[in-house]
Design a protein that fits this description.
By secondary structure, this protein is α/β, with parallel strands linked by helices. 35% of the residues lie in helices and 15% in strands.
Length: 202
Amino acid sequence: MRLLLIRHAPTPETGTILTGRAPGVSLGEAGREMAQHLADRLSALKGHALYSSPIERCRETATPIGRAWGLKPRVNRGFIEVDYGDWTGRKLKQLYKLKAWRGLFVAPSRFRFPRGESLGEMQSRAVAACEDLADSHRNQTVGVVTHADIIRAVLAHYLGSPLDLFQRLDVLPASVSVIDLPRDGWPRVPVVNHVADLERWR
């Protein structure tokens, strides 16, 4: 299976608020335009299946991709956003001041969000979801619209990199990363964080 891990397009809150699983966070006009631009890029590929995190911004990003591929996106809870617990909905500039914030970057594999999920648990369930898709979609191209931390953790796993280093992987909004999961042989990661617009990463 060729797995396309697609980060959702940005919302007005992206980069300022840790929205997490909070309901009602939708793509703004700029996000919808970026999602359509992404769908136009992906229309050159033949997708056999398309999945999405249940979170609204992912489903909205998946909709134009589904139109381009002639597919109806299916929700897969294995790719839902990290449960940030008590940090959900808080401004990032406030979280940066917390002593606990440092632990998120010093030792992510040991970090649990207050009354939320640990990053190790997140990685385990996301990788398990990838393996389930690989079993169900052999020799097919499958898209999954999900979240930055999910994509980083999955990439780290298949690259053989410790979870403690997963923050070093940059995953921009509306970017595409690719993992090949053959039935026999080792996984390959031919693409990470692909965006067409040079200005977004220069």
